[in-house]
Every structure is written in C-alpha cells, then in structure tokens.
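Handout for the seminar on molecular recognition.
Each group receives one record of this type.
Step one: identify the two inputs.
Step two: read the structure output and locate the region that could contact adenosine-5'-triphosphate.
Step three: write two sentences on what you found, then compare them with the reference statements printed after the record.
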Amino acid sequence: MANKTVSADSGFTLNTLLNLWPYMWPADRADLKARVVWATVYLVAAKFILIAVPYFFKWATNALAGGDHGLTPPLPDFLLAPVMLVLAYNVVKIVQLGFNQLRDALFARVGQYAVRQLAYKTFVHMHSLSLRFHLERRTGGLSRIIERGTKGIETIVRFTILNTVPTVLEFALTAIIFAVAYGWLYVLVVAVTVALYTWFTVWASDWRIGIRRDMNNSDTDANTKAIDSLLNFETVKYFNNERMEAERFDRSMARYETAATRIWTSLGWLNFGQGVIFGAGMAIAMWMSAREVMAGTQTIGDFVFINAMLMQLSVPLNFIGFIYREIRQGLTDIEQMFDLLDVEQEVVDKPDAGRLLVADGKVEFRDVHFAYDPARPILKGVSFEVPAGRTVAIVGPSGAGKSTISRLLFRFYDVQSGSILIDGQDVRDVTQESLRAEIGMVPQDTVLFNDTIAYNIRYGRPDATDEEVRRAAELAQIGGFIEHLPGGYKAMVGERGLKLSGGEKQRVAIARTILKAPPILMLDEATSALDTHTEQEIQAALDLVSRGRTTIVIAHRLSTVISADEIIVLKEGQIAERGTHASLLRRDGLYASMWARQREATEAEERLRIAREADEMGVVVRRRTEEV
Ligand SMILES: Nc1ncnc2c1ncn2[C@@H]1O[C@H](COP(=O)(O)OP(=O)(O)OP(=O)(O)O)[C@@H](O)[C@H]1O
C-alpha cells in the first residue's frame, strides 16, 4: 500500500517538476537564463575548490609525520604544514563562501520570478473560473493553498538547481578520486553507503509526506473554519454560538496538533536511521584504511585524507535528506496549487469569438432552458424581448429563476438550449470580455472592496477623474451622504462594505454603473426592505441611470415596475403572464394577486406607521399637558 502511494506520487512529482520547468528556465527571459548558467558555474567551481581540502590535510599530516610520503607540493618542510592548514581552513572556505553567495544572489531573481509568475497565473485563473466554482470554493482554504504553493515553488526552484546538482557532482568526484588513488573497494563502500542512505531517506521522507498532507489538510480546515466563522461574526452573535464556534475550531486544531506532533517524532526516526547508516559506512572505510596504514601500503596522510573526504561527503548527504524532504514537501504544497490551475473554465470563448457590437442594444431570450444541476431545471423555455432603450421588468415568486436570467445574460453559465441574443448576436459567439463591457449591473447585494468609497465608485471606470466620480455619486443620490462622512470620498468602507447600510451600498453600485455607462442595464432590486424615503431616492437614481438604456429590472417590490414597458411574470421557470401593469391587473391573474397582497402589506405597514406616529404625538401632547 505504501509502495503504491510512493509510485503514484513519483509520477506526479515528475509531472509537477515538468510543469515547473518553464518558470525556472523562462523562454522569453535571456537575462534569467544567463543567471541560471552563471549560478551553475559558481556552484561547480565551489565544489571543485572544496575537493582540494582533504589534499591539504593529507600533505600537512605527511609533513608533520616526517619522511618522504609521495606526491606533495614542492615546498620546504617547515612551510608545508602551515601553508596547507591556512589553505584548508581559511582560503578555501573564504573562496567557497564567496562563490556560494554569488550563486545565491544570482539565483534569487530566478526563484522570485517563478514565484511571481505562478502566483499571477493562479490569480488570473481564479478570476477566469465560473461562478459555479466560486460559489463552491472556500476562500480561507484557497488563500492558504496559494500561499503555501508559492512558498513551495521557491523551495523547489532553489533546491533542485542549487543543491541536487552539486551533491551529485561531489559524489562523482569523490568516487573518481577514491577509484584512482585507493582502489574500487573504497568506491564500493562509499557507493553502498550513499545508496543505502539515499534509499532510507527517500523511503522515510515519503512516509513523512503522508503525515505532512494530514497536517496541511487540518491546517487548511482550521483556517477555513476560522475565516468562515469570523466572516459570519454577526450570525454567531445573534445565536450566541461563540462557544460552539470555538469548539468546532478547536476540533480542527486538535487534528492539526496530532499531525504536527507526528511530523516531529518521525523526523527524529529519520535522523537516527541516517546516522546509523553513515556511521557504519564510515567505520568500514576507516578500518580498511587503518589496516593499510599498519601494513605500510598507506600513509597516515592517506588515513586523514579518506576521513576528511568522507566527512566532507556527509555534509551534502545530510542535505540530500533535507533537500529531498523540502522538495517533496514543496511539491505537496504546490500540488494543490497546480490542481487549482487544472480546474477547467466552464464558460470559454469560442476560438473565433469576435467583439460584441452593440448598435442599439436589443436583448432577446429565445426559448431558454437552463439548469444549474441537470436533475433540477430552473428555466423551462423562457422567451422575451427587450426592445432597444426600453425597460422590461421581471417579477415572480422567490426562487422562480429571476436572478438566473441576469446570470445567463452575463454568461456566467451557458444555457442548455435556446439562445440569448444582443442585437442579433448570440452571447456565446462573442468574447465574454466584450459582452460584459456592454452590460451594467446593479446587484441585489452589493459587496464592496475594503477600500475607500472613491475606489469603489471608480471601479466602474478606473480612469475616471475625481470630478466624474463625484458627479456619478451625486447622480446616484449618495453625494451628500459622502460629503458628510468623516474622510469624505476617502472614507474606508470596511470589509465587504460593512460600514455602509444596504441602501448606501446599492447607491455606490448605481454610481459605479453610471460611470461605466453601458448601453444595457440589469437591475436586481434589493430584497431587503428599505425605508420609503431611501427607496424613493434609489428609485430616482435608478430611473435616471436607466433612461435611454435597454433595461431589465428584476423586481421584488411591484410599486417600482408600474412604468415598465412590459412586465414578465415568472413562475417556476416559465412565463406565467406578461403585459403592462394595467393589462396585467385587468387580467386578474397571478400578477394581480401579487399586487393585491403587496398593497395590503404596504397599507398595513402604513397603518402601523400612522398609529406609531399618533402614539408618539399622544405622548408628547400628554407630556405638554402635564407640564402645563
Ligand atoms: N448556483 C446555484 N446552484 C444551484 N442552484 C441554484 C444556484 N443558484 C440558484 N439556484 C436555484 O435556482 C432557483 C432560482 O434561483 P434564482 O436566484 O434565479 O431565483 P429568484 O427568482 O431570483 O429568487 P429570489 O427572488 O429569491 O431572488 C432557486 O431555486 C435556487 O435555489
């Protein structure tokens, strides 16, 4: 079972590395490629210099032991030992350090470039995905995945090139020197030790990656819960559920705690095993050398040389474990990010899609059938037409499919059958970007960016001047409100615009749309009851913005659609009635009964308001009388 996971993972690892390659060796960036090449040159040079150190030790030892001990540099005996020691301990270390720093400095930009490119690509991809994906995703978890993924890339880019290559190189150099100077038996001992060490490290690291995945999952889970809970803080308070939320969070954290603890204990085992394997290999090689020194076939200098070579090899070997773990862990982290990148776009532009050309902005729904889930049809053959510059209102019971019509017009989803046309062009035949540029939307619930009011209004047309922003705000009947805010247009709106009321947010949305000035307009009326004064203000702003534009209004309050050119009554995904306000009332059907119900409700509300006012007046009159 473990083996199966490992082999499946290995396939994936290769795939992930291949996916990463273009970011480490970017085709269009010769400067970055040059950096990679130079970093590699310094890396190789640093290794070659390091290999000289055991020789310096050997010659120093032989000089100290006295006598003729084979090949040594032509230096007088009294100078040999100190010169060699200075070379081994100081010069080589300094030069090597310099080369390594150069290598890192050169490579830093390559790594950071890869991180930025992938983060950018993921971000752009997120925005290209369908509404369905975004409705199903969990924001907290998503941001953690991207954060860990980009960190993972940095790790992989650095470690594959900067560490794996030099380690392999050092091992090869050691093997060659041993083979030439001491015979194949030494190479065999070193090779078996390195092979065992690497095998054990890979095996143990794979085992630990499973644990790491558990840890990541519980970390993501805990984070999602925390963010979700904090975003819903009002609901939590309404229901007094702070304790329940804390316990839910703590349960996720407990899973994280267990996994994180296992990560540390397993690391202990890994280090222990590596130590045992390397210690055994070292003891065997040194015993072989010691016997030769006693037999007179090797010098004490050779003994020191072999010891120094092996000790030196243990450093990158230690790194092999570390690098493998880092690369694998990095891969685990970016695996999820690549999964995100693999999520396919649901709504795609046709290869030959052109721009939408709006002449006068006629909108037409032709026998539209649509379902979010094939098992549950939402729109069942809806046909209507909005002539250029006219207003059509869509009304109907909750869940009838009204908002779905606006999502389809924006092409957030594709229809199952039928078509949606703007000035005779099917929305599927034009680019989504050009389609959305021509339609303005005032949604039911406006969510604002956590920035200034000016930023949020200017979102409709980012190049709008301050004066244009101000004018749009005034037309949307929110200018006065903003002027009186501390900070005015620079006032921050809070996370998701929570510092503004529903009516204020909607007027910001109207101001945005005024700036965008699209030929086609979609107004999704707020369901939440607004007070009469605010409603009138918003209505006035909406009337103004829709003047001369093709407008579809999704209405919940029938009072706002009386003047519409046509009213479409939607029921269970089908058009039940259609006509003007007066003709629909005459018909005495669904619309007429909805109208009667709303009037009753409004009148009841009105009676309640008058009673309340009378009551307040009474209190005042009584108080006045008492005072008199
Ligand atoms: N993303 C979705 N996935 C699955 N079903 C959905 C989705 N969005 C909406 N629905 C369902 O489609 C139906 C129509 O939804 P829609 O939002 O169009 O209704 P509506 O008429 O605008 O209602 P309301 O007046 O309450 O806003 C509803 O039953 C709703 O549950």
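Reference statements: The domain at 20-342 is CATH 1.20.1560.10 (ABC transporter transmembrane region fold). Residues 451 and 492 are 5 Å apart (CA to CA).
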